[in-house]
Write a structure and sequence with these properties.
Length: 396
Amino acid sequence: MTEFKFSKRVPADGTDAVGAILKAAADPQIISFAGGLPAPELFPVKEMQAAVDLAFEEHGQEAMQYGAAKGVTALREQILEHVKQKENVTGELENVLVTTGSEQVLDLVGKAFVNPGDTVLVEQPTYLCALDVFKSYGADFVSVEMDDDGMKMDALEAALKANPSTKLIYTVPNFQNPTGRTMPADRRQKLAELAAKYDVLVLEDNPYGEIRFAGQHVPAVKSFDKDGHVLYMSTFSKTLAPGFRLGWLVADAKVVDKLTVLKQSADLHTDNLAQYAVVEFLAHNDLDAHVKEISALYGKRKELMVEGIKEYFPAGVKYTDPEGGMFLWVEVPGVDDTVELFKQCLEHNVAFVPGDPFFAGKPQPGAFRLNYSNAEEDKIKAGMKQLGEALQEAVK
Ligand SMILES: Cc1ncc(COP(=O)(O)O)c(C=O)c1O
């Protein structure tokens, strides 16, 4: 048998804990709140089919030819208009890069900025795939404490002072994955100021901001950025469909240029047909109305989940009650081993993602993430009852 000499970037065997969890949760008997998928019944399949037809009719040859690494110009223009309207983030074409999912922005930013041993400051907890990406480039993580309003700015400044080799602050300020927490405007302004003061970059990851079902919109960190320290990324994955793999970065032109070179070596460019299809979709459909529909459904599902927590969970359990997005976060006191708790819940035919992989450092025992976007109402009702019973038994 060949002993393959994988690079240091490749995770060791047996470290894909989340893969194992999702596999266990995929059993059809199990009601799973573990995944992170949008509700497929709201995908605009017919409208997108028409948009794909139009893309072929109007741009058939360009769609099938190699294209520009920065993306299709018409889509970049639509993205600029979109971020201006939604987030008051302004720029020119040179500030926009279309990427293969916003996941690719994480990878390109890691590749462009993180040398082995550089510090990346992350929320505690944070999006686990961002941890995987930055780890593959040799990042040293420092976790910044959160409260109900997201990353704490005094903790962030202390971390910046203590870690002069910090390159990057990574944040998901809206309806964070995994906690569902949202950072208020004053903290965002402070975050932009700290980035400038300590000359570090902020990577603002905003896949969920538009999926708001309660409360008021909060301006993007990028809207407070005066000198290019904030890199803003978002995606069509949650507002339209993840299968097209379309995300984007809005940043200083110098950053966009460097990331474009790196993107060329990764995949030359993002799928042209997907880009032209979305160009046509946006030209002929009301994305805002569609997003309202998604938000209304997720709001209803979140409400049911919270009702289930109140009715069935043991006393003393803490949970977040997000105003948007797809996830909420639960903390069960008195639990030492969250993976063991996960296994006990599987026996009750219900699943979540244990909190452990979302922590760069020591995990918080008893914490886990629940997804409500991808579970139908009757499943949420039944699943929360089963989960409550499992937790009652576990904390006895
Ligand atoms: C916080 C966060 N960032 C980035 C992504 C990547 O999304 P995509 O590559 O589909 O744009 C996700 C997906 O779930 C996410 O939760």
